[in-house]
Specification:
heterodimer; A: about 120 residues; mainly beta; 7-stranded mixed beta sheet; 1 helix; 11 strands; about 55% strand; globular; B: mainly beta; 6-stranded mixed beta sheet; 4-stranded antiparallel beta sheet; 12 strands
Chain lengths: ~120, ~120
């Protein structure tokens, strides 16, 4: 596998379900991101883990819970979601500026298309 | 705080015609500027970026963008588009001198190229 991979690619869940999204990067990066992409809205940064510490939580509802066990893996745990949470969830990775010394591009995975019924 | 405006939600154009996708930003601090492209059922890919130096930056597939500080713009242009350029294009900014890269995106412009 190369780049950034995400599983599953599609997920349909009820409001009472618990599920997890998985992201893995094979680029040797030390920062990982979760974004939410909804129609007609800008991409919304949800969480950032950089150098294995969560450095930003963008006022996301607590029904979304991130986990970053190491610099290559990122999870988004979902529980009691609402229909308005249906969206494309994108994972990305990059090198933190403090270690690279220069701004690097973020590499994105293909996303998980989530539908909440 | 930064914000990005892409006024055109959709731009239809014929193959081999020129195109310009507009991007304006607002920021109280210096920023880096990016254009990302998203093809159907895929994640975003970096198209080009402005970090410093020459205000005109180019991509490998014929796109170019010019940073205009006085107009706070970073418009994307291509002199002759192909059918394969059909995609959604996102302009983004990030603040300089931060650790992780916090990208602020516009709402995107869908480029539709027809024969």
């Amino acid at each position: 596998e190369t780049g950034v991979t995400q599983t599953p690619r599609h997920l349909v869940m009820g409001m009472t379900n618990k599920k997890s999204l998985k992201c893995e990067q094979h680029l040797g990066h030390n920062a990982m991101y979760w974004y939410k992409q909804s129609a007609k809205k800008p991409l919304e940064l949800m969480f950032v883990y950089s150098l294995e510490e969560r450095v930003e939580n963008n006022s996301v509802p607590s029904r979304f819970s991130p986990e970053c066990p190491n610099s290559s893996h990122l999870f988004l745990h979902l529980h009691t979601l609402q229909p308005e949470d249906s969206a494309l969830y994108l994972c990305a990775s990059s090198q933190d500026l403090r270690t690279s010394g220069r701004p690097d591009e973020q590499f994105f995975g293909p996303g998980t298309r989530l539908t909440v019924l | 705080a930064q914000s990005v405006t892409q006024l055109d939600s959709q731009v239809p154009v014929f193959e081999e015609a020129p195109v310009e996708l507009r991007c304006n930003y607002s920021s109280s601090v210096s920023v880096y500027l990016f254009w990302y492209v998203q093809y159907p059922n895929q994640g975003l890919q970096l198209l080009l970026k402005y970090l410093s130096g020459s205000t005109l930056v180019e991509s490998i597939n014929g796109f170019e963008a010019e940073f205009n500080k006085s107009q706070t713009s970073f418009h994307l242009r291509k002199p002759s588009v192909h059918i394969s350029d059909t995609a959604e294009y996102f302009c983004a900014v990030s603040q300089r001198n931060t650790g992780f890269q916090k990208l602020v995106f516009g709402t995107g412009t869908r480029l539709l190229v027809s024969p």
